[in-house]
Each structure stands twice: as structure tokens, then as C-alpha cells.
Design a protein that fits this description.
By secondary structure, this protein is an alpha+beta fold. It is built from 4 helices and 12 strands, in the order αβββββαβααββββββ. The strands form 3 sheets. It has a 7-stranded antiparallel β-sheet. A 3-stranded antiparallel β-sheet has the order 1-11-12, with no helix packed on it. Strands 7-8 form a two-stranded antiparallel sheet. A hairpin with a 5-residue loop joins β2 and β3. It is globular and about 70 Å long.
Length: about 210
């Protein structure tokens, strides 16, 4: 089957992209509302794109009306946001945060999550999250119905049990983030395996001397 994205309507492009590009990590994005309340919303158009500088990217669509979502409006105003990774312990609460509450509703409180203040930015995050990235806006790229948010990570929080004894790598027994596939289908990383690349010498033989 072939699909010409230059003529395909937006909803079909969305369906194809989200069905085949996955699993996509979930960012539970927290921001501060204009009145000072916590705002939290899950985003699955998210990933890390650079470590030097440390840049993460969010893709946030507008509402059906074309109006900006609270998350984008808050990020635009404050230039700050936090990203919490989601595991099974907060999966249901993440879904609650994604409901269409009014602007000044505190989604963290509504979901029963414990708000904890960030170290370097004026945003709260759920204390129950396995790890959290504090971010400042590096730049915003606006499209017709979507804003790409490039955030520079300035601080990170990690639950101690999520890392190995040396504090260098994650402990896969304790850090098992979930990710979105398509529609209401998700996957968890509780089944991990090792793939080791063969040496290049198996394929490139040295020239005869």
C-alpha cells in the first residue's frame, strides 16, 4: 500500500503516523497557570533529541476550536515546564490529567497526585513519578494547528530505586515506563532483552598485505 502525504487529509496522516511510529514515550507535562494553579496534561508526541545541549521536544496540537491548549499557553507565558515520565504506578492518574477540565482546575489534585515543587523552575510535578525533567523553553516553533516546544533540561529528579547501585543506569526491575501505541493501546517495558552488535570485522576483511 502507498500513501501520498502531500494529498492525504490530516486525520489519515495522524492515524498512519501514530499507528506505525511507536511505542511513543508519554510526557506528563506540568505547568503553572496564570492564577498560580497546577496544570498537568499527558503528551505522546514527545522525545529527547539532544544531550549537548540537553533538548527534549513536545508536539502539542491546538483544541478542535483552534484555541491553544492550557499547556502551550502556560509555557508561552512562563517559559518553563516539567516533564514526568509515566509508569504503571501513575498510569490511571495520567489518564485523569488528560481529561478536559477547565483552565483553573488543578489536575494533579484531581488525579490524587502529590504536588512537589521543582528545584529550578516555578512548576510542580507529581512526587509519585519515577523521574522528572525540569525544562526551560529553548524555542517554540508554531505551525497552523501545532506548536513544537523545544525545552532545555536544567534539572532532573529520579526515584533512587530506579537506578543501579552506581547511579549510572536505570534499574529495569524498577524503572518500567509505559508508552503509547495507537488509540487506547499502551505498552510497558517490563520485558527487556539485550541485542549485541557483531564486530565489523565479521563483514569487512583486511586487505591482503
Amino acid at each position: 500500500m502507498e500513501f501520498d502525504f502531500t494529498v492525504l487529509e490530516a486525520q489519515s496522516r495522524y492515524r498512519l503516523l501514530t499507528n506505525f511510529i511507536g511505542p511513543r514515550p508519554i510526557a506528563l507535562v506540568t505547568t503553572r497557570s496564570e492564577a498560580g494553579h497546577n496544570n498537568a496534561a499527558p503528551m505522546s508526541f514527545f522525545n529527547v533529541f539532544s544531550h549537548d545541549p540537553p533538548i527534549v521536544v513536545l508536539g502539542i496540537q491546538t483544541r478542535l476550536s483552534g484555541e491553544e491548549k492550557d499547556t502551550v499557553a502556560n509555557i508561552r507565558r512562563t517559559q518553563e515546564f516539567a516533564i514526568s515520565m509515566v509508569d504503571m504506578t501513575i498510569a490511571q492518574q495520567m489518564l485523569v490529567c488528560g481529561l478536559g477540565f477547565d483552565t483553573e482546575v488543578d489536575e494533579l489534585a484531581m488525579a490524587g497526585l502529590t504536588a512537589k515543587h521543582c528545584s529550578q523552575i516555578d512548576v510542580c510535578y507529581p512526587a509519585e513519578a519515577p523521574c522528572v525533567f525540569e525544562c526551560r523553553v529553548e524555542r517554540l516553533i508554531d505551525y497552523h494547528r501545532r506548536t513544537l516546544v523545544l525545552g532545555e533540561v536544567v534539572h532532573m529528579h529520579v526515584r533512587p530505586e530506579c537506578m543501579d547501585a552506581e547511579g549510572r543506569y536505570v534499574d529495569p526491575e524498577h524503572y518500567q515506563p509505559i508508552a503509547r501505541l495507537h488509540a487506547d493501546n499502551y505498552i510497558t517495558s517490563d520485558r527487556q532483552f539485550v541485542l549485541t552488535a557483531p564486530p565489523i570485522s565479521d563483514f569487512i576483511k583486511p586487505q591482503d598485505q
